[in-house]
Amino acid sequence: MRDLIFVAYIVLIMLLALKRPFLFTLVYAYVDIVSPQRLSYFLLNSVPLSLILFALAFLGFVLGDDKKNVRISPRWLLLILLLGYCGYTTTVAVEPVAALDKWNWVWKALVFASFLPLTLHTRLRIEATVLTLVLCVSTLIVTGGIKTAAGGGGYGSLVILVDDNSGLFEGSIISCVAITIIPLILWLAKHGTIFKPEWKVRVYAACLIFACLLIPVGTQARTGIVCIAVLGILLLRYVRHRMLYLGAVALVGLAAVPFLPSSFTNRADTIKNYKADESASTRLAVWAWTWEYVKEHPLGGGFDVYRQNRIRYDMEQRANPDAPLPADLPAVREVVDEGRAFHSSYFEMLGEQGFPGLLMWLIIHFGGVWRMEVISRLYRKRNRPDEAWVAPLATALQNSQIVYLVGSLFVGIAFQTFFYMLIALQIGFDTYLARRRKEAAWLPLTGRSKLAQG
Amino acid sequence: MIDNFSILLSHVLLAIALWRLMNRPDLDHEDPPVQDEKPTGFGQRNRPVSATRKAVPDA
Questions:
Q1: CB-CB contact of A247 with A290 (8 Å)
Q2: Is residue A386 a contact partner of residue B36, using CB atoms and an 8 Å limit?
Q3: Second label for A235, Cα 20 to 30 Å away, from A328, A433, A442, A446?
Q4: Tens digit of each residue's pLDDT (9 = 90 or more) over B35-54
Q5: Residue of chain B whose Cα is closest to the Cα of A36
Q6: B27: closest CA among B17, B12, B14?
Q7: What is the pLDDT of residues A101-136, one digit of tens each?
Q8: Radius of gyration, CA atoms only, chain B
Q9: What span, in angstroms and rounded, lies between the C-alpha atoms of A71 and A117?
Q10: What are the backbone dihedrals phi and psi of residue A241, each rounded to the nearest 5 degrees, phi first?
């Protein structure tokens, strides 16, 4: 039954897109994020849905869009370069089979991220993309939030739609994504034109943000807690009544602690005592291994090179450093492990793509933070009423990016499609504004008369 | 049950959004922006005061 409903739904939205081909791009983003193929049992699994949609989106762009509005930026070129470089490292990967597996989805993420900015040449398209990303992720967030509020959840046990620990359905990743979209929800609730800012939109936005905050509680992913703290600090920058905001955050935080399940507070406590935590110790050992590996192989080992690692580390026996240690127990025990994943996007890039790949990745991401800062300052200074939406969106995208960059310190999400869509959105937004600024630029009298003559 | 509710809610909202977008002419074409009243960027910094005169209304 669910299969038939999904098929009918996709056919319906594709019919809508026939009239306005840009909508195919949004439908592709929907299929990529929500993965309706995974939620259904057979029908959708049997057709290459993403491929068909991308072909339609591309065809719509080639035939229907005005190419004179297309602009490219240095970061866009870097995305293409990264795609080519990853293709090269895959051909010389030390784990050829696993590398090819990862390459098969990475190239799609990078190709779509390169394609999306070319299509974003109106304000409405930018807003529509932000809205689509938020609504698509909300499919996972709403169910996760309700289940957590109802007392479900637990580390590795909160099932969000499907019992599949990959893609956005993985606990740490969805925790990071949930916090990443909060600034975008806030922007949509204030500056949206598709769903105009009225009380219903504000109430839904508030509920959705609450659900987002519950996801790290439900999945008990510590990355999410760190992301919430980072976002809390970032929002402080532009909040009007800072002391009131700080007071409200402290009050909500203190009020929430008694309601959190003890398993969550216990797990959060392990952030402080990382020496006795196997997950943290493994990370440190894998990162050390990666560093040694790239010193010998500066171009990296290709996708999934971590499968080569054999690590050995000492772990403290006491979970609580103040607790007395039994006399017959040594203070540390040796742990031997192999094939452990990077658990950090920075080390994922370094190990897999070497120094050149890491450098490109850092420029793409930190370049985004910098560009959004430049735009935000510029448009606050311009202060034109028709551009009132620009600076807040730049700040929202910047905050999302910083949350991602902090979250990805502890999770290997360097190639997650969702975050490349955010990058693409930033690039498209940036080039769109550059074109509009040029079009709006002050002209001396001679220029104006030429323009009037046309 | 909760899963189906979540799927239904987000999918209905997405369909409404796409429907509204389909009927918006500014999805594909935008009016040109309002002209700046004075020069901005490097031009403004280097220009003498007399040159940054008030904008003349368009003909």
A1: no
A2: no
A3: A433
A4: 877 776 555 555 544 444 44
A5: B7
A6: B17
A7: 999 989 999 999 999 999 999 999 999 999 999 999
A8: 24
A9: 8
A10: -110, 90
Contact A142 B37 (CB under 8 A): no
Nearest-CA distance from B3 to chain A in Å?
Answer: 6
Our CA-based measurement puts residue B4 at a distance from the nearest CA of chain A, in whole angstroms, of 9
The candidate with the shortest Cα–Cα distance to A340, out of A430, A278, A247, A249, is: A278
The rounded distance, in Å, linking the Cα atoms of A172 and B30 is: 40
- Calpha distance A340→A416 (Å, rounded): 19
Provide the chain A residues 42-101 that lie in CB contact (below 8 A) with chain B. Answer: 64-66
- The structure's pTM equals 0.86
Amino acid in position A230:
V
Cross-chain residue pair A136–B35, CB shorter than 8 Å: no
Supply the pLDDT for residue A329. 62
Nearest to A437 by CA among A369, A382, A370: A382
Other CB atoms within a 10 A radius of the CB of residue A47 amount to 12
Half-sphere exposure of A389 (CA within 13 A, CB side): 18
Query: Cα(first)–Cα(last) distance of chain B, in Å?
Result: 63
Query: Cβ separation of A439 and B21 shorter than 8 Å?
Result: no
CB contact under 8 A, B22 and A131: no
Cβ contact A107:A417 at 8 Å = no
**Which phi and psi (to 5°) does residue A297 adopt?**
-125, 80
Q: Which residues of A touch B25 (CB under 8 A)?
A: none
How far is A136 from A133, CA to CA, in rounded Å? Answer: 5
Residue linked to tokens 């890039």:
A349
CA A422 to chain centre: 7
* ipTM metric: 0.85
Any CB–CB contact under 8 A between A14 and chain B? no
- What residues contact B55, with CB distance under 8 A and at least 6 apart? A442, B35, B36, B37, B38
Report yes or no: A372 and A400 within 8 Å, Cβ to Cβ: no
Residue A183 pLDDT: 96
Residues 6+ apart with CB under 8 A from A146: A211, B2, B5, B6
Q: How confident is the model at residue A277 (pLDDT cuts 50, 70, 90)?
A: low
